[in-house]
């Protein structure tokens, strides 16, 4: 299989669709991104990264960061995490508060906003959000073997400035005692990790361990137990794309996570990790062209986990 | 891998849990099933079926039948099916009507009751529910290479007698024009296919094609296109266990479908198909001991699709 | 106060609004009603009926009939009724099924469709829907002192033919054991009483007892206890207009009930009963011009119960 | 009618029920109130106040204050208020957030928490919550002819300390642009007016204008237009007791407002204003014994607006 060739073909294949979808516009920093951008990268266990298009340009990973905070939280607190967040698809939008009321402040899963705030809350000791973010950055830089990875602080500030809905979710959970830290402390870390800027290449490389049972196949470092790794993949499959998670599983058949910055991360167990970037979103907040590109990747490689 | 040995070990392993859970009691025919029953069968592409416990005793497959009607409907009408039923997890109970109201009579997916009634409706031509059921029986007998497979008509009659909730769902969809046939015609077929009686061995054999891209590996018969086969597996992963679908993916990591008769079907792409039977259910209607047995199977075989 | 003059002034006042709103079109018999029709009638305790416009032309009273079946059911079964139906506003549309699921088949109040079906079910003994309807007709004719009142059977048949949503509601309640009679028996009576045809004058006269503590002020006949009469008025105030009941109380300040045939009944405790008819409806199913006319009536008479 | 006698009889009548219900315990200042307290007062247009029991002991009026802020806001901004808050019963608990999501941040009515926060927000100019509270206090003292009325600042601080759920509601509305002031500014005024401490006698006197078309019958001062006064009464009737508003209308038949401090205010158009206090609440947050006392009052006086 010639992945270098395949990613080039995919760039050509999506060409007629470039610019489709609606760029997220709730903060200026996202709204002004060029909608014609497109990048794809596939990291493989031999340490190679096959990429094409704008695969080396950092973008705001937004919700994709929730996968990495989930991994960190499971490393840190283990299965106690599941006392405070579920693992079922929500059947609702990413920022819905309805189920929180019916289910007494326990979010459905760690990949919707409410759940990710709870996960982030677990990463913060003694109210020190900065330390939690530093740890996350250190870990991501190590995984990606790239010390240049950083947060886009303009985006982080904008997230906070426009974060009323997330504040509502956080206060709602706080009212049920489901946050350990002050609401603004937890959100301060949450807004920052959503503002992480990574390129497709960095993202695919940083997530490679998820395709190899929790062990980085290049460095040999064990990051998670095989069981926890499988479970993160399962949660991505069930819940990674809000209320179009089922459609993503149906069309692409890989565990994945999308972000409103236009990125999608997809894990191919035993094979590698793929990342795409195209800012235009569908109604559920998943990159339209990115999903097309991943469909094309699976069609060419046969990488669906479903046969 | 010695599957014959593994299934025996699993019978021993679940022994302390036998009888756990609550047997479905909404119809007498289910309520009087012995809660201590347990069977497991794994069908493999070489035509073998490795089984243990009560694996040859037919039980009421109930909702597991929805997988086979979905396959038939996709063969018959293709992607037009998705005009009338979605493919997203519902986040709700199997018989919930709430989303139908918000989403104007279009059920979330083909594996909740409302969605399965729509799928069944597609199988019926000219109001002839009997012909649809005959076709389903013929197909199942062929897939399972066992002409003795049949419907338990006592169960079918009981289903209909106690079918008020399903009638409500069907009339609700009818009010939005989402049924082609008369409500009682569609339900007549629905109640009968839910009353199919298969053993674990028959069930695993009948579903084997789903593990091999839609082609029966024993007979070589192509039943579905590879793409449709993958998609059915994806829907089982996302939606196969109602509001504990996410937990099933998390714990077991295989596409599957549970029924309130206590059966679970699990597909292992490229390897085989497994079926378990234990009547006691968890709160969401999935067999408790059956899920434990499948966890044990995955632990011993490494068969999770997630790594 | 010269009511004869006032009703004439109101006809003039609403003239510029005639034809506003959207005529119910779910059955042909309603859809073909002339949208320019307008009638108003006010029955007073001296036996007079002050009317203007099309006040003597019978129209389909639809949900207004629920007030009379409620009165009959309270006479028949007393407070046991409240075991099977609530008395809270639903905050939802007239035909919503969502709350039924959350509240296990007990409708919120007797004036939404589900609640009215339960009320009707109480009126039927031994499965004899015909007898229940005969009783209702006899009672209405007596109250209105007009033996010509009847059901429009064309409308009743159409209601049944298009009654899928009501069938869904009824089966849903049946699934929780909240119907005594067969679903089709209960609905047969329900569809017929909704198809009652009364003129504004007949309607106002028939409901006059509700303004006088349950006693007909003309004949002196006691129909209900004062307490039950007050309670029916309270329920009309809280729940008489589906999800615009609050707005009706806010604007008009009288207990009332609207029907999708364009009629509105309003009770003025101690003064009389008013009925209007104008087929165009607002989004919640209340007659637009009828509500304007009642606002004008209250402005001229000071009849709001709120001061 | 001897109201002095009637209120004494009512104290005797409720005696066997004293202490029933559950005292609000979400803040210590409420939790430690003696559950055996009971007071009743009826203010009449002649300037008299007929009272019995603990009618002169100030208690935390909590949500009853929402009636006075609503009156003030209507005086200040008029019907523009209805752009940002509805007037329909919610059918939900006082602090529910579900409808806010479905209805894009517009609360159902001014008497649920979310709606009252919006109303309070209207009272605040230039972010000066203190000025808004000073105005409210001045107005209440004038209405009640009692300059000693004040806020219980311990309660206000506790409300704020435990105000996570209200913060969530406020941020949710802010995310839809439905608050003019900063969330904490609006809440600062909201928590303080909920902490107002009035006795039954003060409360009945302060609300007397609502029974007389907006004019204080003792001083002759016009406070509201008759129309706005009627409308406030209508909203109290439809929405004054959260999800048991319908039951209150059914049993008592008067516009009213309950607070979790155990108070209930009831308006008798044309007759007077009544207030009761008994700390034990029913499941919906309305004083159990207070509601019984008002039922007894209406039974003795025939004061129901429904006949």
UniProtKB/TrEMBL annotation, chains A, B, C, D:
<feature type="binding site">
    <location>
        <position position="242"/>
    </location>
    <ligand>
        <name>substrate</name>
    </ligand>
</feature>
<keyword id="KW-0378">Hydrolase</keyword>
<dbReference type="InterPro" id="IPR015868">
    <property type="entry name" value="Glutaminase"/>
</dbReference>
<dbReference type="GO" id="GO:0006543">
    <property type="term" value="P:L-glutamine catabolic process"/>
</dbReference>
<dbReference type="GO" id="GO:0006537">
    <property type="term" value="P:glutamate biosynthetic process"/>
</dbReference>
<dbReference type="InterPro" id="IPR012338">
    <property type="entry name" value="Beta-lactam/transpept-like"/>
</dbReference>
<comment type="similarity">
    <text>Belongs to the glutaminase family.</text>
</comment>
<protein>
    <recommendedName>
        <fullName>Glutaminase</fullName>
        <ecNumber>3.5.1.2</ecNumber>
    </recommendedName>
</protein>
<feature type="binding site">
    <location>
        <position position="260"/>
    </location>
    <ligand>
        <name>substrate</name>
    </ligand>
</feature>
<feature type="binding site">
    <location>
        <position position="113"/>
    </location>
    <ligand>
        <name>substrate</name>
    </ligand>
</feature>
<feature type="binding site">
    <location>
        <position position="166"/>
    </location>
    <ligand>
        <name>substrate</name>
    </ligand>
</feature>
<feature type="binding site">
    <location>
        <position position="63"/>
    </location>
    <ligand>
        <name>substrate</name>
    </ligand>
</feature>
<keyword id="KW-0007">Acetylation</keyword>
<feature type="binding site">
    <location>
        <position position="159"/>
    </location>
    <ligand>
        <name>substrate</name>
    </ligand>
</feature>
<dbReference type="Pfam" id="PF04960">
    <property type="entry name" value="Glutaminase"/>
</dbReference>
<feature type="binding site">
    <location>
        <position position="190"/>
    </location>
    <ligand>
        <name>substrate</name>
    </ligand>
</feature>
<dbReference type="GO" id="GO:0004359">
    <property type="term" value="F:glutaminase activity"/>
</dbReference>
<comment type="subunit">
    <text>Homotetramer.</text>
</comment>
């Amino acid at each position: 299989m010639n992945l270098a060739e395949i990613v080039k073909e995919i760039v050509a294949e999506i060409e007629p669709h470039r610019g489709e979808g609606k760029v997220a516009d709730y903060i200026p920093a996202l709204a002004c991104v060029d909608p014609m951008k497109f990048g794809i990268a596939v990291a493989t266990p031999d340490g190679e990264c096959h990429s094409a298009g704008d695969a080396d340009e950092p973008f705001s990973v937004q919700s994709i960061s929730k996968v990495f905070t989930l991994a960190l939280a499971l490393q840190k607190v283990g299965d106690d995490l599941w006392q405070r967040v579920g693992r079922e698809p929500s059947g609702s939008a990413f920022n819905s508060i309805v189920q929180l009321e019916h289910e007494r402040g326990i979010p459905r899963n760690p990949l919707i906003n409410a759940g990710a705030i709870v996960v982030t809350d677990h990463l913060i000791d003694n109210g020190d959000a900065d330390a939690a973010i530093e740890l996350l950055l250190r870990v991501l830089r190590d995984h990606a073997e790239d010390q240049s990875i950083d947060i886009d602080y303009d985006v982080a500030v904008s997230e906070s400035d426009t974060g009323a809905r997330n504040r509502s979710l956080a206060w709602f959970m706080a009212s049920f005692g489901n946050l350990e830290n002050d609401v603004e402390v937890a959100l301060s870390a949450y807004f920052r990790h959503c503002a992480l800027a990574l390129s497709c290449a960095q993202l695919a490389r940083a997530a490679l361990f998820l395709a190899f049972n929790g062990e980085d196949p290049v460095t040999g470092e064990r990051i998670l137990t095989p069981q926890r790794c499988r479970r993160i993949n399962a949660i991505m499959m069930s819940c990674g794309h809000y209320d179009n998670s089922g459609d993503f599983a149906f069309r692409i058949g890989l565990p994945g996570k999308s972000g409103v910055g236009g990125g999608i991360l997809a894990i191919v167990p035993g094979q590698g990790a793929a990342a795409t970037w195209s800012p235009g979103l569908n109604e559920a907040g998943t990159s339209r062209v990115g999903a097309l590109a991943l469909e094309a990747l699976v069609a060419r490689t046969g990488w669906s986990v479903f046969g």
